[in-house]
Every structure is written in C-alpha cells, then in structure tokens.
Design brief:
mainly beta, 1 helix, two-stranded antiparallel ribbon, single chain
Amino acid sequence: MPFPNSRVIPRGWERIHRPVSEGMMTAVGRLTRPATDGRPVFDEATATSTYPAPAVLWEGAVRFGMTAGPPGSTPVGGRDVNVQDYTFAIPTRGTPLVQVGDLFEIVECSGDPASVGMVFKVAGPRRGALSFDRGFSGQLQPPPTTR
C-alpha cells in the first residue's frame, strides 16, 4: 500500500514509455467488423451466395505475438481442435474501440513474412493494457472448409 498522497506510477512515465511501445509495433494490421445484418445475397445465375463485405475500421501499426502456454481446444464438428491465443497492441490515438467478434488481419510484417494474410477473431480485451496502447487477444481463424 503506498503512502497517502503518493503516486504509484510517477509523473512523466507515459511520456517515456509511449515511444518505446509504439516503436515495437513493427507489423501493419487491419481491423474489420463483419456486416451487422450478415444476410447473404443469393445469385440465381451462379447459384452462389455473396456476403456483405466487412467494414474496415482501422489500419496501422501493430505489435502481436503468440501467448505463452499450450493451446486450448475447442470442439468443432464433434472433434477437438487446438486453438492458440495471440495478443495484439495498437496505438490508442485515432483507433476505434475493439469489439469481441471483430476480425484482425496482418497486412505487412517484415519480421515474420509467413504471418501476412493471417486473420484473427477478437476474443476480448487484454488485462492490464497501458493507457497508450489498446490491447486485445484473438484466435487464428481457420480457412473455411468445404464439404
């Protein structure tokens, strides 16, 4: 317990640490939100359904990585599928609030070119996020299956 009238975090802490946090955001990501109605439009001529395009909310610098620990499992089609969680941090300046169910795509990443094109579904906010970055967790979205 700190002394009365004392600060736990010293003045000027954010001014020093914000550039460090933003400097570690070496990838570029795109945050999208699926259409709210979600109703597909059926084309009789081609016999295919087209879903409305998701709205692009934000695109910019991001820091992301896999969380420590073993992957969890989720039942899909009667089988357990391993699911690995990832954490993300984007700057708070000019970024919208992230909602559960939003999609986050890695657009550029020079440190890990294999991650470009990966799409994650936002699972929720990250605990203990800093005031100058918006932290959240997500899970890798598998490509759609066809049967």
